[in-house]
Amino acid sequence: MTNVPSKKKSVNEAPTKKKHVTKDREKSHTTRAYSRLIYPYSDYMKWSPIRRMMKDNGADIVARDAVIDIIQWTCSNAELITKTALRLAKHAKRKKINREDILLAIKYI
Asked: pLDDT by residue (tens digit) across 24-49?
C-alpha cells in the first residue's frame, strides 16, 4: 500500500463552496432565462404593482399569466405610442417628446 500525500490547503487559500442546487430548482420554469423568454418586459414593469392595482380594483384572485398579459399589452402599446410621438417630434424639428406629442400619438393610434 502506497501513501498518497494529501493536498494541504495553504493559509491564504479560501475554502471553496459547493453550489447547492435542488432537483426542483433545476426543473422549475421560474428560472431567470425562462422568465425572460415568456416575460421580456420584466426590466420595465414588475408583476407585483400591477397585481396590487388589480386587487385594489376588486380582483382578489388573478393568475400570473393574466397579469403578464396585461403587462405585455401595456408595454407594447407604450412602445407604439413612443415611436409615433417621436415621429411627431421629429416632424416638428424637436428632439424632445412633449405631452402634446404623446396625446396626438394616442389619438392617432
From this structure: 555 455 555 555 555 677 778 888 89
